[in-house]
Amino acid sequence: MIQSPLKFAVIGCGRIAKKHIEALTELPETSLVAVCDTKEDRANKWAQELNIPYYTDYHSMLQAEDIDVVSILTPSGLHAAHTIDIVNCYGKHIVCEKPICLRLEDADRMIAACKRKKVRLFVVLQNRLNSAITSLKEAIDDHAFGKIVLATVRLRWSRQQHYYDQDEWRGTWSLDGGCLTNQASHHVDLLQWLLGMPKEVSANIATRLLNIEVEDTATALLTFADGALGIIEATTATRPIDTEGSISILGEKGMAEIGGFAVNEIKRWQFTHSTQHPIPSSQNEFPDTVYGFGHKKFLDHVSICLRNGEPSMFDGIHAKNSLALIHAIYEASDQKRPVKLTDGPHFRKLGLKG
Q1: What's the whole-model pTM score?
Q2: Which residues pair with residue 269 across a beta bridge?
Q3: Which terminus of the chain is less hemmed in, N or C, by CB atoms within 10 Å?
């Protein structure tokens, strides 16, 4: 256990860093003590704004600063190397942006390194903490839906070509992955977290509008162990703007749909015995971006777990489940056949080196 406030450092000052930095500077039990990026201008911007030191090499930072937790916000394909290096060399707790990494064997190596050094690994799957999603999880755990018939997640976001052109790693198999691995990884995670891992997946991916190596559009059909069916629809080729990030559950005793563009708003909540499962009050949130408000809740959760020694639903094993399902979707599309999750899919293009 660590005494408050927890001292954080951020590695990677790109697009998502703003959400982490804002949360860390607002939470009373956390303190941001340094930032690092190989692009000096990005790190210096935050250092100037927050009056903290910046570095372009994380080894220099970790040798110079007193740090409890390192937040790794680097390209997805570098998560494993950075986590393992920092854990082995410095024994720091790790917050890692989603996805945990790109290769399943690398996820195992990250988990093993943290266990060996007796430090904690937390992967940012913040949509689990959305108020509407919390209510949905409670309803599922209470068997409010009875036999579940169909579960669907939809991601309809807009990423223009300039988004991918701003960094050379974006839209590549080696360091990023496509809309499934990057943007829809949250929604894939929600589906398997709420209903469990499916037993079989069929899928198709396509690159329709963007000049990138990877997919901008994907669909998948899932079969769960209890016979329920699932659908994943994901695209960054929505035009002109982001329109939807949602999940719906249909069951014999009721239905629910959590919509908005960040799975943030209860759109439908109907049960055959409505008095037993009334619509939750004050559960809708209206963020100004698709990232939602979850990063602050997530980092508060990290702080509580580290200070009190509590278990977390954001550990490496939880995060690996989502990655395994993404691999199965890619493999099913690549092989043009259904893939069983028990076969341990390993899609080789994702995280391909060289």
Answers
A1: 0.95
A2: 256
A3: C
